[in-house]
Specification:
α4 runs antiparallel to α5 (170-182). This protein has helices at 2-90, 113-121, 133-148, 152-165, 170-182. It folds into two domains: 1-94; 107-182, no CATH class. It has 184 residues and is mainly α. 14% of the residues are buried.
Length: 184
């Protein structure tokens, strides 16, 4: 039995030496990998520094442009606010009336004053069909005027009529595009 214990001890010592050699090999491999990684970092550091310089230069170059853009945006916002304020002052004085189209009152035939004109003008228009492709284009232009004056339902009716009466005209193509823009 003592021979067996001696043999086990020899095997354990041999395994211990093998483990020590393996640990040394792993440590040496780790140092080699660490040295390679450091060398690669040193090699790529100039390129990284160059990219950082370019990034800083780009930021420095774009800063004045961004400032100009902010100033221009603020100026546009200010002009828009001034324009809206001026329009708000004008609105009570000037009431836009569309040209005479079936169901819409024009300034020439107002008899009941502005209040009745507004009530009549706000009713949906049922325009007379245009007599020619030129008339179709005029109807599309009128629809644009309605849209500019926040009257989308009247514009939509005009556009549908143009599309129905003149489907193969350029005015009908424009009407389809406008109708698609105002109807989600």
């Amino acid at each position: 039995m003592s021979a067996q214990i001696d043999l086990s001890e020899k095997l354990l010592r041999a395994l211990g030496r093998d483990l020590d050699r393996l640990a040394d090999d792993i440590t040496e491999s780790g140092m080699i990998l660490r040295d390679r990684a450091r060398a690669q970092i040193r090699q790529e550091q100039p390129a990284l520094d160059d990219l950082k310089k370019k990034q800083k230069q780009f930021a420095d170059d774009s800063r004045p442009l961004l400032d100009r853009l902010r100033n221009a945006t603020a100026a546009v916002d200010q002009l828009t606010a001034q324009q809206n304020a001026a329009l708000a002052k004008l609105q009570p004085v000037y009431l836009w009336m569309p040209p005479a189209v079936d169901g819409v009152v024009t300034p020439e035939n107002i008899s009941g004053g502005i209040a009745s004109a507004v009530a009549t003008a706000s009713a949906p228009a049922s325009p007379v069909a245009p007599a020619s492709p030129d008339q179709a284009q005029k109807q599309v232009d009128l629809a644009r005027t309605y849209l500019d004056n926040k009257m989308p339902s009247q514009a939509a009716q005009l556009l549908r009529d143009v599309i129905q009466k003149y489907p193969d005209t350029p005015a009908a193509a424009q009407a389809q595009k406008l109708l698609a823009d105002i109807q989600p």
